[in-house]
Amino acid sequence: MVRWAVELSEFDVQYEPREPIKGQVYADFTIELSSAATHQEEAGFIWVLSVDGSSNQQGSGAGVILEGPNGLLIEQALRFAFKASNNQAEYEALIVGMLLAKKMGAKSLPAKSDSLLVTRQVTGEYQAKDPQMAAYLQYVQILKETFVVFELVHVPREQNARADLLAKLVSSGKGTDRGQSYRRP
After folding, report:
1. Which pLDDT band, with edges at 50, 70 and 90, does 25 fall under?
2. Most confident region among 28-32, 83-87, 145-149 by mean pLDDT
3. Domain-by-domain residue ranges, the chain?
4. Cα–Cα distance, 166 to 163 (Å, whole number)
5. Could you give the 3-state DSSP secondary structure of residue 143?
6. Environment class of residue 50 by beta-carbon count within 10 Å: exposed (0-12), middle (13-18) or buried (19+)?
7. What pLDDT is recorded for position 163?
8. Under CATH, what is the fold of the domain 48-182?
């Protein structure tokens, strides 16, 4: 809270306490909001995830783009505080994106990645022979179960340009002030 207060102080933003809300008004608002979300899902509003990972001599990172209903767009650039191969970075990006979508309440999640290996392992076309890749795959399979519909498709790099740009930016070390540093839990 203090950090936000310091950052917002330069914009001359001040906190004003909210006046009490009558219980019925709050209950009506909650019902209205939840029924609107249900109608959006019924009307076909789904979230779309685009992910890419990148690794090089300077470091590794991920680009995650989550597009939601009503034009909502969440872009994240994550610089990893650990060494990762390209395939590990791709899995990390996918996992972070799936967790973000889950937090946002997504039920249906089509996902796009330009990593042929990761997409084929997740769809079951390839086996994960490396123990680390198998662990990543197992975690993705567990996360898949939290969605009603989840589909990961392989797309050419040109169709995943924004996520690719974010991943390359943070892995090169140039975009570290805009991205988040991410450590494995």
Report:
1. low
2. 145-149
3. 48-182
4. 5
5. helix
6. buried
7. 84
8. Nucleotidyltransferase; domain 5 (3.30.420)
Distances from the Cα of 25 to the Cαs of 20, 34, 39, 55, in angstroms?
Answer: 11, 14, 21, 51
Sign of CA pseudo-dihedral 172, 174, 176, 179: negative
pLDDT digits (tens, 9 = 90+) for 81-120: 888 888 898 999 999 999 999 998 888 999 999 899 999 9
Q: Which helix (H) or strand (E) holds 164?
A: helix 161-171
Tell me what the mean pLDDT of segment 165-181 comes to.
Answer: 63
Provide CB contacts within 8 A for 91, sequence distance 6+.
Answer: 53, 118, 133, 136, 137, 140
> Which stretch of DSSP H or E encloses residue 83?
none
Nearest to 69 by CA among 21, 108, 127: 108
The pLDDT value recorded for residue 138 is 95
Strands (E) in the chain, as ranges, are: 48-56, 59-67, 73-80, 108-113, 149-154, 180-182
